[in-house]
Design brief:
Layout lengths: L4 E9 L2 E9 L6 E7 L2 E5 L4 H11 L7 E6 L5 H7 L4 E8 L2 H8 L6 H6 L3 E5 L2 H6 L13 E6 L19 H8 L2 E11 L5 H10 L2 E10 L6 E10 L11
Parallel strand pairs: 5-6, 5-8, 6-7, 8-9
Antiparallel strand pairs: 1-2, 2-3, 3-4, 9-11, 10-11
Helix pairs in contact: 1-2, 6-7
Length: about 250
């Protein structure tokens, strides 16, 4: 049986001190993994329904053909693992700003680390997702200009509650147009949010993408009791028209 509490790793980073902790849940006896950045909780293995739903909703309506997927934000790996669980996914690029988080997976310090680090379809990339969206080379440093069938993003708390001020520009129309350029025709952008659906951001998506929808994801809250909710936005780029790809 594990100790009641253990700080597995702690590092100073340019974004603040980050720590990986493991504690034993007194109700279930299970180990709970938590990531903190400064005083903020970024991720807990108690609450993964929203991260898994991000992938499932984002990939749900894509065709039954081999898919290339990019994920912004590694966290504890639940969004990425859900993508690898989809047999259509032939390649997955996961981008995280913090090398420390990637190292936790490579060293198998988190529950899904061994699975992600050993899957030949998956590549963990240290980089600033928000800067790469705007960069001419795009999201994959190994293949400049590459476009994807789906881009899934789980970094900020919501479009209004960002971890760094420079992230805010992505959620405006120009940022969404730049992100759409990283998608193949008929490709999908999906975003996790901890806030209820945001009418202003919905309007931004509607102005850039061919279709968009906000899904409310309900899940049990074992800490406070009852049900909690996340939002998953899913926006789809226009398909190619008359054989001419959509830029």
């Amino acid at each position: 049986m594990s100790a009641r509490f253990e700080e597995i790793d702690w590092r100073p980073t340019p974004m603040g001190d980050i720590s990986l902790r493991r504690r034993r849940d007194p109700a279930s006896g299970d180990d709970v993994y938590e990531v903190k950045l400064g005083d903020e909780f970024l991720m807990s293995s108690l609450f993964t329904a929203g991260e898994i739903a991000l992938t499932r909703l984002g990939l749900a309506d894509l065709p039954d053909t081999p898919l290339d997927v990019a994920v912004g934000g590694l966290g504890l790996g639940y969004t990425a693992q859900a993508a690898l669980d989809d047999p259509r996914v032939r390649s997955l690029v996961v981008i995280d700003a913090l090398a420390e988080v990637i190292e936790w997976h490579q060293r198998h310090l988190v529950p899904l680390g061994a699975s992600l680090a050993s899957d030949p379809r998956c590549r963990l990339v240290q980089g600033d997702f928000f800067a790469l969206v705007q960069d001419a080379g795009g999201l994959d440093p190994q293949e400049p200009g590459r476009r994807f069938h789906a881009v899934l993003l789980d970094v900020d708390h919501s479009p209004r509650h960002v971890l760094h001020p420079r992230h805010a520009a992505l959620y405006e129309a120009a940022g969404m147009r730049a992100l759409a350029d990283r998608l193949l025709p008929d490709g999908v952008f999906a975003l996790w949010s901890n806030d209820p659906p945001d009418a202003q951001f919905n309007a931004v998506l509607a102005g850039v993408f061919a279709t968009s929808e906000a899904h409310v994801v309900d899940f049990d809250n074992p800490l406070q009791g009852g049900t909690a909710t996340n939002t998953v936005y899913v926006a789809r780029k226009a398909a190619a028209t008359d054989g001419v790809p959509v830029s």
